[in-house]
Design goal:
2 copies of one chain form a homodimer.
Chain A lengths: L2 H6 L3 H17 L4 E4 L2 H8 L4 E7 L5 E6 L1 H7 L4 E4 L6 H7 L7 E4 L6 H10 L4 E4 L1 H9 L3 H24 L6 H14 L18 E5 L37 E9 L2 E9 L6 H20 L6 H14 L16 E5 L6 E6 L11 E4 L2 E4 L3 E4 L2 E4 L6 E2 L9
Parallel strand pairs in A: 1-5, 3-4, 5-6
Antiparallel strand pairs in A: 1-2, 2-3, 7-8, 8-9, 10-11, 10-12, 12-15, 13-14, 15-16
Helix pairs in contact in A: 2-7, 8-9, 10-11
Chain lengths: 399, 399
């Protein structure tokens, strides 16, 4: 086993507790079995992303049927029952061999599973009622264990190295892509895993965003306040060939990923002075972060935090620019992170949700000014009984 | 409009011809309309990936309904009818306004579309029969235009810069990740778009693979001969923390992506001498490439090329190691590339397919030796009436 695997392998106790929590949801909803296939979900319940299907019965140990690589699945996963399989059609036989019969209600990841695969599974389980299991999975994954939080802090450390290097890398006249490349190589060499997973269809993330001046106010297909031109229309997000100038905001929104877990963080930089209006907006975003964090604690309703942030932007006469402008305004202030960048819970308009402890949210008050750019702050936080824990333990002011 | 957009914008004539070819397939199969939503398909038929749905009627101009960003879709796409929309429920009204009624058979991208979105669309088009349109789309996308081939050659140029730099970057004792990071920064600064798209569910690609010694023989969840340990179990593919040694093969399999289009290329490097057996296998892979390319021409059956390559490996007593070993052997020699890394056609076992001109395939004869690593070659080729055109115009021997 490689050294890194020894360090990061998901412990058996973690897998057991995750499966137990899923089975509790299943029992409540009278679901006989759930099939786990998507990369992030598979990693969560097995500790590996090797190609296969985890069959979780409501009252027995899961059977992990692996197509490729079986050898690596056996090395990487602490699940007890790991067997080889080649096609979906073999599943009923394998399940029978493992003493599993009478599957009346089967849950599938219907929010992410392509229709043609779903149709195949429907014919394999033609005697069963098929339901959507994604709501149970997403609910369970919201609450993070100590092991998960420690992994996310490591992702935060990696991110800190790159963010702290920015003031030394940044020079007038370099392009956004050049600055992005220089920060990305730091992330990569520090242990960033490369791939960043998102759950929602057609959403994509490559490292993060390095946006200068008006780039910061350009939106795109993503459900996020910041966008940027990107290198080309086929990848219209993030750094472009635009040259960085003095006196404009340079906003860097970076995503780190370490052994599956992502954390998200934004800092605003500039060369020489920023215009008064932008400095004021940056200070308001820091103030919103401060007040939000004071309230981000077990028992709070997230919708109230959202409303409060909006009122603060209004009181500062900056609501027109808060979290976007015009058509491209988004209606959230924060998003859950974990194995995916777009997890639950969110801090959003009408998202009526009582926060529990150990939920991890990236909170990102930002202001976007057309033609001038974006300023703001973002950190990833773990909710606690009292004050939240800062997962991206990096100074807020790096200029 | 940005400078880069002017250079790479998909011309109106391209979009027209693509839609015309789709409509011809639709007419043949009596499909009234096809909805295009997935990133790569959307880019192909509109020139943008902004969030929206392209509704293609069998006998009229497409209506592109855009959610976000409408402004950018209008800038980036040469489609004529681009309208704003907020939810799927609005579609029937928008279509009526555009004179489109009587939709009896609707095609959706059922190979990639998540079930919950499919279910929503089924209720929006509850009076229509729903069929899978992905087979038509994938078929049309196989044949590349001059514009597409030129874009892919540009992707090849970017890749050439990184590959040619490897001999100067490579030193004993550096880790695979360090070498990967140094080549990735060259790709990124040269115009690589970052994101690499794959069609098949749960398949992922981040730049490419830098594998030394036994890493070259480690397989994983991907449907590919090479895998590698990767940085961690959550991203178990590509470069790891392994230190590069003298006398072992260092195989670099890199994917470039420029304005949507990907090309794929592999070179084998080493510090000092390689063992006789590995040198022989590398030479056989070059010989297989040579003979394959002679046959890779309009009218050939791709299955025959596959069989021929296998026979060459057998004749050299190397079939045990060809395209993997043991359980992890793959049953193809080449794969189509374009807007996605896993396009059609493939050169594979029993893939009975007559090659037409302007189809682009990455052909990758490789040998994997357990505990020793991998050697081989890969280039991306465009089929022609005669000899194919090399899209990855890089010397085969860079050592």
């Amino acid at each position: 086993m490689s050294e890194i695997l020894q360090q990061v392998k998901t412990p058996k106790s973690e897998l057991k507790s995750r499966i137990k929590r899923l089975q509790a949801e299943m029992a409540r909803e009278e679901v006989s079995a759930v099939l786990i296939m998507q990369q992030a979900d598979k990693f969560y319940f097995s500790g590996t992303v090797q190609d296969g299907v985890i069959f979780v019965p409501v009252d027995d140990k899961p059977v992990f049927m692996v197509r490729k690589s079986l050898k690596r699945a056996l090395e990487e996963s602490e699940l007890e029952k790991i067997v080889s399989f080649k096609s979906y059609g073999q599943m009923p036989t394998i399940l029978k061999e493992n003493g599993i019969e009478n599957i009346s209600r089967v849950g599938l990841e219907m929010d992410v599973m392509p229709v043609l695969i779903f149709n195949k599974l429907c014919s394999v389980f033609s005697g069963s009622e098929i339901i959507d299991a994604s709501k149970y999975i997403r609910k369970i994954r919201m609450t993070k264990s100590h092991f998960e939080i420690q992994t996310m802090k490591k992702a935060g450390e990696i991110l800190g190295k790159a963010m702290k290097a920015v003031p030394n890398l940044l020079t007038e006249g370099m392009t956004e892509v050049e600055l992005a490349a220089e920060t990305e190589i730091i992330l990569r060499k520090s242990g960033h895993q490369g791939i960043i997973r998102m759950r929602k269809w057609n959403q994509e993330c490559f490292y993060g965003l390095v946006l200068s001046g008006e780039s910061g106010a350009i939106s795109n297909y993503m459900d996020a306040p910041l966008g940027g031109m990107g290198p080309c229309p086929a990848a219209p997000r993030g750094a472009s060939q635009r040259k960085i100038k003095k006196g404009e905001p340079i906003i860097i929104d970076m995503v780190s990923a370490y052994n599956g877990y992502v954390v998200d963080c934004t800092r605003t930089f500039y060369l020489r002075k920023l215009e008064e209006k932008l400095v004021k907006a940056l200070n308001v975003s820091l103030e919103i972060q401060k007040v939000t964090i004071e309230r981000f604690t077990e028992g709070v309703n997230l919708k109230d935090i959202y409303d409060m942030a909006w009122n603060m932007a209004k009181d500062a006469n900056l609501d027109e620019y808060f979290m976007g402008h015009g058509d491209s305004k988004v209606k959230f202030l924060g998003h859950g992170v974990g194995l995916e960048l777009d997890e639950l819970p969110v801090i959003a308009e009408n998202f009526d949700f009582i926060l529990e402890k150990n939920m991890i949210v990236a909170i990102e008050p930002k202001f976007l000014f057309p033609d001038q750019g974006a300023v703001g702050i973002e950190n990833t936080w773990a909710s606690k009984k009292g004050r939240p824990e800062k997962i991206t333990d990096i100074e807020d002011n790096l200029v």
